[in-house]
């Protein structure tokens, strides 16, 4: 596994934005029947989630989060040298969404901007990349924009994904700081399992055609097209059982911590059943495992920053927090970080309506 | 853990009455068998017996007995 210690990079603030539009378990009851919808909701822990309607894109949510964060930090926009956007739901095939966001956020032309394609492990990849790029001190300030609008990739007739996902975007402000506590990373990949969590058609291997758009009945009565997200829940669960406990152990070892040193563990919000089982098998005390599934569901790349800017907002704004963040999913990929976070700026989560957007 | 004890643990986790599962039931016909119960079965196999069952293995199972057969090495006679 790749990873290691990164010094001289600190988080200065975290903000999130979600679509105003809500879907509750009542919606799934109409599609799958009351009994099955309730059973799924209880097990996956999702009772409502935010849904990007009216063409809201991930970039719109990240833009709103970034505006709020910059306002609260009072950062001069010209002081930002780097913008990284992490998502599997970009605006265009080309260019990188990061370039369009540089312009929308009125950042300087000396700002470097690029995209990283990752979902559930996206926040860890973003932190790792940006921390490394800031560490030498040539770049002083960076915006890490991470999010997804997975509900736009989901077939409403596919019970394995229909009631789990929500949409969200995040902005994390990071800066070079030679007094910052080090971050300890661990990352890994198993592309052999790529097909277990995949949107097969719509890019270049299988370009979109009239046929790839047609939704047909597949395994277990699930209805889906090749342009919709496919997830094999059992294969993903087997993968998390195999990879996440050793990942956590490695990250703790790098930092020289054991679980008693940790204030909060934030896992990718896959679903409640997986989080609870992983916590149990890794013997992490329940009060240290923070989740927000009931209100927001699985927000893909945004799920870790959503917990930071939501459930952990007060603690992060007022105190030092020793955090273990764990991402795992599409790729298949996994990544974790152990880091001491000094008090940071955490504005309240903002809501975005379709009408608000100036694209 | 014996086969009977694992069956009982499955019943508890699936929240069905004791005695609902005997082994020869066809999974397709079981009301309590869906994608979520597959994860519950996997978690039990991992927790109680230290066996990680793959998605492919589960797809090939037709009956409750097939699920138990995957764990045969670790189940007491």
Structure in words:
The complex is a heterodimer of chains A (359) and B (77). Helix content of chain A is 30%, strand content 25%. Chain A is α/β, with parallel strands linked by helices and 359 residues long. Chain A has a single domain, classed as 3-Layer(aba) Sandwich (Peroxisomal Thiolase, Chain A, domain 1). In chain A, a hairpin with a 5-residue loop joins strand 11 and strand 12. In chain A, helix 1 (25-32) packs across helix 2 (34-44). Chain B has a single domain, classed as ACP-like (Non-ribosomal Peptide Synthetase Peptidyl Carrier Protein, Chain A, Orthogonal Bundle), CATH 1.10.1200. Chain B has helices at residues 3-14, 35-49, 55-59, 64-69. Chain A binds chain B through residues 36, 39-40, 43-44, 159-160, 196, 219-220, 232-235, 237-238, 241-242, 273-274, 277, 280-281, and chain B through 34-36, 38-40, 42-43, 46-47, 52-56, 58-59.
Features:
heterodimer, A: 359 residues, alpha/beta, Peroxisomal Thiolase, Chain A, domain 1, five-stranded mixed beta sheet, 10 helices, 17 strands, 30% helix, globular, B: 77 residues, mainly alpha, Non-ribosomal Peptide Synthetase Peptidyl Carrier Protein, Chain A, 4 helices
SSE inventory with pairings:
The complex is a heterodimer of chains A (359) and B (77).
Chain A: E1 2-6, E2 9-19, E3 22-24, H1 25-32, H2 34-44, E4 48-50, H3 58-73, E5 82-86, H4 97-104, E6 112-116, H5 122-134, E7 141-148, E8 168-176, E9 183-189, E10 197-198, E11 216-217, E12 223-224, E13 230-231, H6 233-255, E14 264-267, H7 272-281, H8 293-296, H9 303-309, H10 313-318, E15 321-329, E16 333-341, E17 350-352
Parallel strand pairs in A: 2-17, 5-6, 5-7, 14-15
Antiparallel strand pairs in A: 1-9, 2-8, 3-4, 7-8, 9-16, 10-13, 11-12, 15-16
Helix pairs in contact in A: 1-2
Chain B: H1 3-14, H2 35-49, H3 55-59, H4 64-69
